[in-house]
Write a structure and sequence with these properties.
The chain is an alpha/beta fold.
Length: 949
């Protein structure tokens, strides 16, 4: 392998290290280890037929060439995506900062206080702007948020409506088309009917349980919905409103006129359009609905000494606990983008946000006046940023389009011939002059350039916002770049990320997100692209998407791919919808059951329920494999109704099950499909694949196997790959002329993430990708060999080896000493490590996945830490340490406790804070003690204004 390839930088283990590790494991070669780990009958016979690996320099030139094929026109299409200005201090210190983009979802509260505070800022900004008391910390996109709102309102139907079978949601005809398409996809399998029409003409019948409105509506008109909402509530109907969050700086927020749910996107708050995503959707509701809310909520709590701190509240691990009874399959969402949107609100503050919104509105008012004077008629009576012009008989939309394109401008063209434009934060006087010129030239009239546009407002008193927002101190003190930079730094110092140490979370694949993969995201040609521009303006994106799609097909052994699903859970859902559509097409639509092993990730059963299936659980045997006898019995018992099996491979227990081909055959013999969850694809790439094994569909987590970052809880991307017979049923989009099975608002979902995965595959190549898989398996088996004689390993494969991850036994420790897996997880923080996966998939254990990116020295340091903690446990067991007062039950030890004059523990400060030499060299100081996990649930405080007194 050439030594200037990314693989040499990405893979942490050298050939010399490899030999040492193999000796510890007890095998003679890496190939022997792989032969003993992966069943021979599923091993690929040939290397992956991928293009030759590029060096980092070559890829930099290649991606620059693709970027150059994207044409950045001034785009006023709107419809949910708007150009915006990302403050440089946020782009540089958050978006491009590995501390923010390589951290994990903040389940481990004590080492996540920075991003928890940033997400609390986001929630507070959303609550203030919408006028609602409760918001979550993001959803995937506006269209998905709409679908979640429908599901939530369905669950909240009054008893009488449930009894009578009320199942209709009224959707105003002026919601965005992509929102309606995703709501339709999600509603059908749940037995919910969507009825569209004019809200002003609606007769509320007993079968209607909810209504969905857009504010301002899809045409740009800001309607006064007050009377309608009163009428709906009188009929016991809930009302959800999709609101433009920036418009709410000027318009009366829906929370003030009775909305039950307010949702939308925060893309306008400083997040680039990225050809459709990622950006953070928001979701706000009433406090009494908090238990039904999808997504994750950040709340206040206190640590053991009473210090106020943050934690994820209520639905923190909902899918793992509730499984098929979960309110949603949304696991994590768009944390990095929500963090950026929250910082945007902090940086600009209430005056800045009002000024930006006011300038947008003033330019729209000016353009309406001037263009109307040229003989056009603007039809929106009340608006924020969007104008819709009816053209004179002598002028066609095609004339306008030709002139606009000649000036590199994209406008919105309505089916009836009207022409629209949505003004945004980047629109200035020069841009306004160009817009006027387009309409003037079409009308054959002269126009005068202006050098300034006066402030003005045409919003009626009834719709004009009177209430204050963003009044909390955090939105009013960091308005210089110096202060903002330091505030961001103050927060990031509180969090463990890959920039500090290995994050060994099992089933999460926290591998390197290489700088060469990340750099292209900051290119304007990728950041500034609207998803609905003409195809010839996005040739660079389209070529990248085609290339990546082909590469993913080769890697998975499948015939088709959709990049639309914008999370792993969304990929699960999309795959199941494809299966349902296929079964319906062959007259097998009655098949309604999905077989799921007990070890499956909690989102599997949650996704199955959302896709309209019921679940049948299949047992696992004592070795952690699918219990074949139970599988055969359940498959036979349900064969006429069985739609699919959902199975993770290697299993969530970290094992390559030897019977996987037979499992697929059993399911196919019943006439059902095999859905392979791609969460553990990092142990397959180059050695086997779902298509070769015999699956029909799989989803991939680009944020696991394919090196895109976790971002503190998103963005993720969950493309699905399918066999030939399922290709016709892949998610469509209104833009493609067919919205069947559409699962995201944008045609290609979170397209802005795709250059990372594309770079990873192009720079690693076949050899690099295959070696990465082998090293991931090597590193896991090395850790297993180092820890087997102390903690013990719960499951091993048929020949005694683990896959790319393993489960550490902690239950016996708890029985003998009272020390729990949670105590071990918290103690790891004192050593500067994020905990492994806690109590999943087996309660009372820790699941560890080292990935291929970690060096032998880091693995050895982790082993040393774990063995030192083992010794600390033995001290408790042998009575040398106090059972109620020891370094484990009191962990983590925050800086403020360690430096305090008062120290009342039975062990020394040094033992608490500096237990081994490596910690002295790289100490991560925790800033809160162990956090109370019930206080913040008993009293949910989801905004910065919260107080327990």
């Amino acid at each position: 392998m050439k030594n200037d390839l990314l693989a040499c930088r990405h893979i942490g283990i050298s050939k010399q290290d490899e030999a040492q590790m193999l000796r510890k494991i007890g095998v003679n070669s890496l190939d022997e280890l792989i032969d003993k780990t992966i069943p021979a009958n599923i091993r690929l016979k040939e290397p992956l037929a991928l293009p030759e690996a590029m060096t980092e320099y070559e890829f930099g030139q290649h991606i620059a060439g693709l970027a150059a094929k994207n044409k950045l026109y001034a785009t006023y299409i709107g419809m949910g995506w708007y150009n915006t200005i990302t403050p440089a201090v946020i782009q540089r210190n958050v978006f491009e900062n590995p501390v923010w983009y390589t951290s994990y979802t903040p389940y481990q509260t004590e080492v996540s206080q920075g991003r928890l505070e940033a997400l609390m800022n986001f929630q507070t900004a959303v609550c203030d702007l919408t006028g609602m008391p409760l918001a979550n910390c993001s959803l995937l996109d506006e269209a998905t948020a709409a679908a979640e709102a429908v599901t939530m309102m369905y669950a909240l139907r009054p008893r009488a409506m449930q009894k009578s079978g009320a199942n209709v949601v009224f959707v105003d005809e002026n919601v965005f088309p992509q929102t309606l398409a995703v709501m339709t996809t999600r509603a059908i399998p749940q037995g919910i009917e969507l009825r569209t029409g004019k809200y002003s003409e609606l007769e509320l019948t007993p079968d209607i349980f909810a209504c969905v409105l857009q504010y301002p509506n899809a045409c740009g008109n800001a309607e006064d919905y007050r009377a309608f909402v009163e009428k709906a509530h009188a009929a016991e109907c809930k009302v959800a409103v999709a609101a433009d969050i920036l418009s709410l700086a000027l318009l009366t927020p829906p929370g003030e006129w009775g909305a039950d749910i307010v949702f939308g996107t925060t893309q306008r708050l400083g997040t680039p359009m990225f050809y459709g995503g990622p950006s953070a959707a928001y979701f706000a509701t009433r406090d009494e609905y908090k238990r039904n809310m999808p997504g994750r909520i950040i709340g206040w709590s206190k640590d053991r000494y009473g210090k106020m701190c943050y934690r994820m509240a209520l639905q923190t691990r909902e899918q793992h606990i509730k499984r098929e009874k979960a309110t949603s399959n949304i696991c994590t969402a768009q944390a990095l983008l929500a963090t950026m949107a929250g910082f945007y609100a902090v940086y600009h503050g209430p005056e800045g946000i009002r000024t930006i919104a006011g300038r947008i509105h003033s330019i729209a008012v000016y353009l309406e006046k001037i263009i109307n004077g040229l003989g056009y008629k603007q039809v929106n009576t009340q608006y924020f940023d969007t104008l819709r012009f009816a053209l004179p008989d002598t002028i066609s939309a095609q004339q306008i389009r030709t002139i606009a394109l000649s000036k590199e401008v994209n406008l919105r063209y309505f089916k009836n011939g009207d022409v629209g434009m949505s003004i945004d934060e980047t629109t200035d006087v020069a841009a306004a002059n160009v817009l006027v010129s387009i309409f003037a030239i079409a009308a054959g009239q002269d126009w005068t350039k202006v050098s300034d546009i006066p402030e003005s407002c045409i919003i009626s008193n009834e719709l004009k916002r009177q209430s204050a927002y963003l009044t909390h101190e955090v939105f009013n003190k960091y308005h210089t770049e110096t202060e903002m930079m330091r505030y961001i730094k103050r927060l990031d110092r509180k969090d463990i990320s890959l920039a500090h140490s290995m994050i060994s979370l099992g089933s999460c694949t926290m591998k390197l997100n290489a700088a060469a993969e990340m750099l292209p995201l900051s290119r304007p040609e990728f950041m500034g692209m609207h998803p609905l521009v003409p195809e010839d303006q996005a040739e660079g994106y389209r070529e990248l998407i085609r290339n990546l799609s082909e590469e993913l097909k080769i890697i998975t052994g499948f015939a088709g791919v959709s990049l639309q699903p914008n999370s792993g859970a969304a990929g699960e859902y999309a795959g199941l919808r494809v299966i349902r559509a296929y079964l319906e097409s062959i007259g097998q639509g009655h098949r309604s059951k999905v077989l799921i092993p007990a070890s499956a990730h909690g989102t599997n059963p949650a996704s199955a329920i959302q896709a309209g299936f019921s679940t049948v659980t299949c047992a696992c045997d004592e070795q952690g494999n699918v219990d074949m006898a139970d599988l055969r019995a359940k498959a036979e018992e349900n064969k006429d109704d069985l739609a699919a099996l959902m199975i993770t491979y290697p299993s969530t227990h970290g094992i390559f099950e030897t019977e996987i081909v037979e499992i697929c055959n059993i399911i196919h013999a019943c006439g059902a499909q095999v859905y392979m969850d791609g969460a553990n694809m990092n142990a397959q790439v180059g050695l086997t694949n779902p298509g070769f094994i015999g699956a029909d569909v799989c989803h991939l987590n680009l944020h696991k196997t394919f090196a895109s970052p976790h971002g503190g809880g998103g963005p993720g991307v969950g493309p699905i790959c399918v066999a030939e017979h399922l290709v016709p049923f892949l998610p469509g989009h209104k833009m493609f002329g067919n919205a069947a099975n559409q699962v995201a608002g944008a045609p290609f979902g979170s397209a802005g993430i795709l250059p990372i995965t594309y770079g990873y595959i192009r720079m690693m190549g076949t050899e690099g990708l295959t070696r990465a898989t082998k090293i991931a398996i090597l590193s896991a088996n090395y850790l297993a060999a180092c820890l087997k004689d102390t903690y013990g390993i719960v499951y091993r494969g048929a020949t005694g080896f683990v896959g790319h991850e393993m489960i550490l036994e902690c239950r016996k420790v708890h029985e003998e000493t009272g020390i729990s897996e949670n105590d071990i997880a918290k103690r790891l923080m004192d050593y500067g490590y994020h905990a492994p996966t806690l109590s999943f998939p087996v309660h009372g254990t820790l699941m560890i996945e080292p990935t291929e990116s970690e060096s032998l020295s880091e693995l050895d340091n982790f082993v040393n830490v774990m063995l030192t903690i083992w010794e600390e446990i033995q001290e408790v067991k042998e009575g040398k340490a106090n059972k109620e007062d020891n370094v484990l039950v009191n962990a983590p030890h925050p800086e403020y406790e360690v430096v305090a004059d008062n120290w009342e523990h039975s062990y020394t400060r040094e033992k608490a804070a500096y237990p081994i030499e490596s910690v002295r060299e790289n100490k991560f100081w925790v800033n809160v003690a162990r956090v109370d996990n019930t206080l913040g649930d008993r009293k949910l405080l989801p905004t910065c204004y919260g107080c327990f007194d």
